Amino acid sequence: MSHYYIGADIGGTTVKLAIIEENGTITKKWEIPTNTDNQGEAIPSDIAASISNTLKEEAIDTSMVAGIGAGAPGFVDTTTGYIHEAVNIGWKDFDFGNLLKELTGMTVWVDNDANLAALGENWLGAGEGCTELIAVTLGTGVGGGIIANGQILNGANGTAAELGHVTVVPDGGAPCNCGKTGCLETVSSATGIVRKAKEAAEKYPESKLNAYLNDATLTSKDVFEAAKDGDKAASGVIAEITDVLGMAIANMAIAINPEKIVIGGGVSKAGELLLEPLEKAYRKYALPRTAEASSFGIAELGNDAGVIGGAFLVKKNN
């Protein structure tokens, strides 16, 4: 009888891993660096070795593990675990699911990382029990996951709910890693917020953001804190990025009529400084009846959402 699931959340800098019980309790969690050298070819063997070592340390036999649920930042064929492209880690046409299966001897299920975060929040977090949910992750990029009629949406070739690549600046805008320009990811991600803040600081010589202009240490957190202190440049940036994001979510909401909209990722640590103007923008742009049905919340599982979603992927396939 299997008692454990393994969740793996592959990010641009770290791979988060966890051994999780059938009820969602995390027995052990840890992380390893994401080795992006040579188009990330060593990542599957790094994950397999780390899982093997940790199971030995925890005295858990592989026969007690029902499988591995892994999330990757990119376009995933969920039936095979084949990754068509994961720009931030260098994979292109990469047979990740089968490689990890061969290396570990375990059954492996793979999905997009933002979809796993949505599944995790839907199972045990801010979206618990919702059948209609939009999960947005705001980090280095912008990820989206949609649950409709209780099922995660993947689409015809794995690009459903790629909210970060909705065009919000037509005919121009900043270039995006996906090859397009003007994507939501170029505006409302942590990277986009910092870029916008540097542009704004140049127009407001008195802004405290100017202190960061000559070095690379400015973070989205600094921008939110400056806005909280009444800095005009920072406040303008937060107003702009929440307005654009609110409009994108309102447009997506028309498609599935969500009960809950969950905001996660590093930028969500700003809490109400982000949520209040974002929800206001969403309600401004959404169809009033759609807005009536939905509530906003900050993701509750934090950095564990992806690994918990990975565990759920194993659970629902067993």
UniProtKB/TrEMBL annotation:
PROSITE patterns in the record: ROK
InterPro entries given in the database record: ATPase_NBD (IPR043129), ROK (IPR000600), ROK_cs (IPR049874), ROK_glcA (IPR004654)
First-tier enzyme category under EC: transferase
Keywords: ATP-binding, Kinase, Nucleotide-binding, Transferase
Pfam families (UniProt xref): ROK (PF00480)
Record's GO cellular component terms: cytoplasm
Protein's recorded name: Glucokinase
Phylogenetic classification of the source organism: Bacteria, Bacillati, Bacillota, Bacilli, Bacillales
